[in-house]
Design brief:
Elements lengths: L1 E5 L2 H14 L9 E5 L3 H14 L5 E7 L5 H12 L6 E6 L3 H6 L2 H8 L4 H5 L12 H8 L5 H11 L8 H18 L1
Parallel strand pairs: 1-2, 1-3, 3-4
Helix pairs in contact: 1-8, 5-8
């Protein structure tokens, strides 16, 4: 079983739709559970009880936003919390925020909201989704109708992992595939 722990409901909704696209050949045997939290503080507070109490030999993937924090420090904090429980935990960070992953596939955003964002993807400040400062605000300006949880659903439905240009998304997808391979070996 793979247990994905997210810091917010919108990322949980997006991942419910995107993970099957990342692991399409594994769907019949994929045992996946996604657990959403109400912020990074909530996730960190509940992590010990989840690791201690989860039955079986589950593998855990923690997905959180960088939010202008140091990636290495965020990962270290989470792994420190997990260490006493001796459970496999992979930490993946959306740089800067989940919306950076949406900027990585603006075609999905366009399809989800019926807006044309072709020219945005070509602009210098948007070519590297992980370096966009405050992507949530920038995306709201481009798509005023964007609602967080609904956006996770709609954009996740349209997202194509192979075309996503966000490096942190690619690192997440590669990590997920590696966890699956290790479980299947």
């Amino acid at each position: 079983m793979i247990v994905v722990l997210t810091e917010e409901p919108s990322s949980a909704e997006m991942l419910k739709r995107v993970i099957p696209k990342i692991l399409p050949d594994m769907l019949p045997q994929l045992d996946l559970q996604i657990v959403e939290h109400r912020g990074i503080g909530d996730l960190k507070a509940k992590l010990p009880s989840l690791l201690r109490g989860w039955p079986g030999d589950a593998r855990f993937i923690v997905v959180c936003d960088r939010d202008r924090r140091d990636c290495v420090e965020v990962k270290r904090e989470i792994l420190e919390i997990a260490k006493p429980y001796n459970r496999p935990v992979l930490v993946r960070i959306a740089c800067e925020e989940l919306e950076s992953w949406y900027f990585g596939d603006l075609n999905a955003v366009s399809e989800a909201y019926g807006v044309n964002l072709d020219q945005v993807a070509k602009k210098r400040g948007y070519r590297d989704p992980d370096k966009i400062v405050d992507p949530k605000s920038k995306l709201r300006k481009l798509v005023p109708d964007l609602m967080q949880v609904e956006g996770g659903r709609l954009i996740g439905d349209s997202m194509v992992p192979e075309r996503n240009t966000s490096h942190s998304f690619t690192v997440f997808a590669d990590g997920l595939r590696r966890v699956w391979r290790d479980m299947s070996a």
